[in-house]
Amino acid sequence: MDFLASPHNALKHFIKKKPDKADRLKVFLIAGHSYYALM
């Protein structure tokens, strides 16, 4: 799965998967990088 495609996709995956803390941190970091890259 390509989280970099969209922060929304990363958040959907985050909600769906209910990841542990490490995965949650990774998802938010990647979503954050995608968000700032688009600005």
Detail the topology: elements first, then pairings.
Elements: H1 7-17, H2 21-38
Quick tags:
39 residues, mainly alpha
Short description:
By secondary structure, this protein is an all-alpha fold.
Number of strands: 0
Category from helices, strands and their pairing: mainly alpha
- Assign an overall shape: flat
Largest sheet: none
> How far apart, in Å, are the first and last alpha carbons?
23 Å
Give the rounded overall mean pLDDT.
68
H/E order of the elements? HH
Unreliably modeled segments: none
Number of helices: 2
Indicate the radius of gyration in whole angstroms: 9 Å
What's the domain count? 1
Helix content bin: over 70%
β-strand percent reads: under 5%
What this model shows, in words?
The chain has 39 residues and is an all-alpha fold. The protein contains two helices and no strands. The longest helix is centred in the C-terminal third of the chain and has 18 residues, at 21-38.
